[in-house]
Amino acid sequence: QLRLVESGGGLVQPGGSLRLSCAAPGLTFDAYAFGWFRQAPGKEREGVSCISNWGESTNYADSVKGRFTISRDNRKNTVYLQMNSLKPEDTANYYCAARIGRCSWSGTDYNYWGQGSQVTVSA
User: Do 98 and 24 contact (CB within 8 A), yes or no?
Assistant: First the structure.
């Protein structure tokens, strides 16, 4: 089973920034849309952002709009999530996921997932 590889999580103070990366070795990269999801303890998984297969379309959850930026580099088979102005409520395990076709906010529509990267925002 193909697995996406995430990196870049960690501990950051409120107002700080982090950049998550998601590598997709072995995937026909430009055939896939990518989404970022997050799950905090005791809460349901939620969609954070999504980018179309050539990057021409991006979507964001209202809670992160204006603070997070999703991007991709199809030459490097990598998707990024730049997170600025982080808040304690952004604390969660962040997952990237890939699917053939268009962006979707439903996690069940995705074919491949990463292992998760913990982001903790705390003073």
Answer: yes
CA nearest 70: which of 53, 88, 82? 82
What is the distance between the alpha carbons of residues 99 and 55, in angstroms, rounded to a whole number? 14
Cβ-contact 81, 36 below 8 angstroms: yes
Let me know the angle formed at the C-alpha of 84 by 78 and 88, rounded to the nearest 5 degrees. Answer: 115
Residues 19, 38: Cα–Cα separation, whole Å: 14
Q: What is the DSSP letter of 53?
A: T
Is pLDDT at 1 greater than 80 in this prediction?
no
Residue 84: both structure tokens together = 């600025």
DSSP state for residue 4 in the 8-state scheme: B
**pLDDT, tens only, 71-116:** 999 999 999 999 999 999 999 999 999 999 899 999 999 999 999 9
